[in-house]
Structure to design on (140 residues):
């Protein structure tokens, strides 16, 4: 689970390769006693369904906190949330998660991007719009 989450957060596909190797190594054991490996199975589920929400906004701003709060108000096990502060403070995260470097705020408002694989949605600034982008994916 941790390798997959880190892969999604950073865009490092090498971590996916390691997770796949673990899956192959333990597949037989897990299939014999799946109830003993529930977290492992949750990790496998994350591989096929995960998506990332990148919120670009000042972490002290009300609109950013509201956007994060709306996401935290739902049980979204396959959603990974990253918050990028605008300007020079963004550098630490954008160095780890290179795919966030090209994401920006719109009109000075907290802006969210829903990403899956190497593709991100059009940016949205309304928290309910973020949920609308996520929830159809959660149900599939």
């Amino acid at each position: 689970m941790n390798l997959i989450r880190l892969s999604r957060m950073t865009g490092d596909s090498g971590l996916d390769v390691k997770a796949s190797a673990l899956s192959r190594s333990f597949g037989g054991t897990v299939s014999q006693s799946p109830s003993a490996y529930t977290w492992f199975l949750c990790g496998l589920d994350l591989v096929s369904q995960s998506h990332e929400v990148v919120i670009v906004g000042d972490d002290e701003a009300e609109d950013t906190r509201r956007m994060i709060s709306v996401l935290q108000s739902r049980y979204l096990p396959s959603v990974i949330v990253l918050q990028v502060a605008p300007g020079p403070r963004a550098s630490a995260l954008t160095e780890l998660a290179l795919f966030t470097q090209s994401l920006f705020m719109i009109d000075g408002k907290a802006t969210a991007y829903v990403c899956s694989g190497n593709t991100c949605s059009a940016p949205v600034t309304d928290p309910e719009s973020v949920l609308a982008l996520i929830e159809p994916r959660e149900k599939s």
Summary: The mean pLDDT is 86.
